[in-house]
Each structure stands twice: as C-alpha cells, then as structure tokens.
Amino acid sequence: QRFDTLVKNGLITTAVDTYYADIGIKAGRIVALGHELGEAAEVIDAEGLWVLPGGIDAHCHLDQPLGDGAVMADGFFSGTRSAACGGTTTVMPFAAQQKGQSLRAAVDDYHRRSEGQAFIDYAFHMIVTDPTETVLKEELPALIKEGYSSFKIYMTYDDLKLNDREILNVLALARREGAMVMVHAENADCIAYLTELLTESGNTGPYYHGVAHSSIGEREASHRAISLAELVDVPVLIVHVSGTQTIEQIRWAQSRGLRVYGETCPQYLMLTAKDLDRDGFDGAKYVCSPPPRDPAAQEAVWQGLESGVFQVFSSDHAPFRFEDVKGKKLHGEHAHFEHIPNGIPGLETRLPILFSEGVVKERIDVTRFVALTATNPAKIYGLYPRKGTIAIGSDADLTLWDATAKSTIRNADLHHAVDYTPYEGLELTGRPMLTLCRGRVVSRAGEPENEAGYGEFLKCDTPQPARPRGNAKGF
Ligand code: DUC
Ligand code: ZN
Ligand code: ZN
Ligand code: ZN
Fold it and tell me: For the whole model, what pTM was predicted?
C-alpha cells in the first residue's frame, strides 16, 4: 500500500491557503497532497472538517524547578496529554538556569524530567539567569549549535532578572550565534516601588498584583528591550504582551524596519483586572505577569493579532494549583499578592478559545489563526518546515476541526493537573475532533489516545529571523 494513512475530503488550511485535498501519510510524514492518491492501510474521512497543522505552543511551563517552595502541577506527562487534547502537537517549555547553576546542567536536568513522558513532540527554550563568562563563551554557543536556539531573559524578578549590561551581552551572543531572544519585559524597580506603597497602605489582595505590575512598567521595559536589540542589531521577541502600551512600542519598532516580534496569550483576550478582584481569594486564580488589563487593552490585542503586530499566540501555561499553592495553604488564607505564584493554566484551551472567539466570531481569518498558532512559531524558533505547516515532507502533525461543534469549558473535562481553569463556563464554537502527531492519533474528541513516551525531543535549527537575509528558506 502506498500510504499508512490517508486523510480524505478535508478542507486543508495553512497560513496562506485554504483548499480541498487528500493527505497521504507514510512513516509519520506527509508524502502526497492531491486527489485519488491511492490505497492506504487506514483512511480517515475528514468530510466537513477543517484540517489544520497541529498547534505549536511555543511558550509553556512544565515541571520547571522554582526557588520559592511553589511547585508546578504539570510535568511533561499531564502537560503534553492536555495539550494534545486541545489540538496541539508540539510544545516548547523552558529549561531554566538557576543563578549559580551551569546552563548545561539545567538543560541536562530538563531532559531527565521529560524523558519518556511526552504524548507529543517537544523542544526546549532555555532561560538564562546567570550569563557568566563560561555561559557566554562556551555553554551558550555550544548549546545553540546543538539544537537549543532560543532563550528567554527576564527584566524583573530578583532571582531571574538581568541588568541592561547583561542583556546587551546576551543579545550580542545571540547575534553572533544565531539565536532568538525572548524577553519578559517589566520594569523591576517600578514593581518594587508600587508594591512597597501598596503594602504600606494595606492593599495586599490579589487585585493589587495588577496595580503593582503596571502597564507603564511593561511599556518602559519593552521599549528598553527594543532599544538594546536595535543597538546590537539582533531580532528580539517580546513575550506575553498584555495590551495597548506595549503594542504601541512593538508597532513603532516594526514600522522602523526592526526585527521585533510579539507574542500574546488567551488571558489578555479573555480576562481583565476585574477578575483579580473576585470574591474571597478567588482573584488569586487570575494572577499572572503581566496581568490582564481592561477592555480597551483586549480590543488592542485583537487588533494586533489581525494586523500582524503579533506573530505568536501561546498559552504561557504556568500550572499552579489554587488549593495548595496559589496563596492558600502555602502562605495562609490571605497571602500577600507578592506570594501568589504568577501564572495560569491554558495548554488545552489555547486553540479552542482563539478559534471560537477569533475565527468563528470573525475577528481573525483562519489562515491568520494557523500562522499565529503553528506556522510562525515554527519559523521563529527553527522548527520550520518540519513543523507548522501542511506540505510534502513535513511531519504529519494535523488537527481536524469541526467548526460548528458547541462545547463549554469545564475544568473537570480538561487533562491538566491544575485544579481550576480561569475560563470555567466559557461557551465555545468549534473544536478539534482528531489530532495526529507524526501520523499517530494523539487525541479524539477531546480525549487522549496515546501513550507517554511517544513524543520526541526536537532539535531547533537557526531561527529564520536570525538567518542572513535572502536565505533560501525565506520568512
Ligand atoms: N512569566 C512567564 O512567562 N510565565 C509565568 C510568569 C511570568 O512571569
Ligand atoms: Zn515571563
Ligand atoms: Zn511564561
Ligand atoms: Zn478525559
């Protein structure tokens, strides 16, 4: 037989096109696109369904060691299983260096944490918190060549942040070696100053987390990151952009021809500062950094998605349980907002929310949906064209959507290990009915159908924006 699997009669959608064709799969790869392709061992009828590239969640946190006693509820097993049920076929979590630790040790440790656990494929970003001589001269250049071609840096958090000189050093390194730098852009001193004022006046509930993490501090740090990257002449990506002011900075940079990229997340479309002010301690469920803002910010984020200011839409899944971590048992019933772990879950709900709220409600085109959730992250992080598109030679990572199916988000139906979802009760139209990773079914109608250990580690190539202009693979 010519194929292992044939996906027939579906409406294929890529970042640029929508067309009817059958997909022939052999040994986990797409080997034919067309009509009347021939015999297959297994035929999947996709009549009435949209066939999209499997999602790439290029920003999520799984089993990341943390300094402060908090633990992540999801490791690679539950995290990737949950992602698969939401139509995602590749995740990119972070191998985080602790200050004083070698970067190599952090990467090795992260391989131990992920080995044999994953349902779907995965690559690593690194987090660089301690850019010593050895890290800059030896470890980073070697690791980038070995397939870890992107890393995140922080401008805030005492145990993570780099100063401007350190940022310039790592940006220069990224330029020399061809890496993508992701920046958490918030001004640490602005946060510390506002936190002190709020604490003095007794304003320590979850709502004040959003006040302390001001959009002015986010905008200032974003502008600084853009300026430092311009000085060094290197591409940079601002992660988890929360709203209007940072979008203005990114748009300004892009209009000047700078290679500045932007990422946003479901929380900035669906939540506002009001959610942090919910009854009792429930606001803690919505604490993330940067925090959700206001309805005008939500509107600006939608506009940025459609107009191309944003290239990447990620979950920023940060799996902290409410009951024993989000401030309750860890720091008492009424923990200071400073002690509430920053981050919310979202691996499984990322694609369904953007599909329903974006595509079905006609705020973004379906081709833009594919670009934001699969194709662009693959290109920006060096996984394209193996991942992120439907083309001959690409991995058979596919997700088949019923664009009219109705459902309601219930945490009880999700497959992560977090004890809540910030989107409980949200009604959705459109859902992934069948998801394949390298030709193997990994989820069906929202339920997992694979085993831990199928997912492979992916080495990342040089990110496309970091390649010389005019290179054959283009962007
Ligand atoms: N940054 C992230 O990327 N995720 C969670 C919290 C944070 O500050
Ligand atoms: Zn961050
Ligand atoms: Zn994150
Ligand atoms: Zn289930």
Answer: 0.98
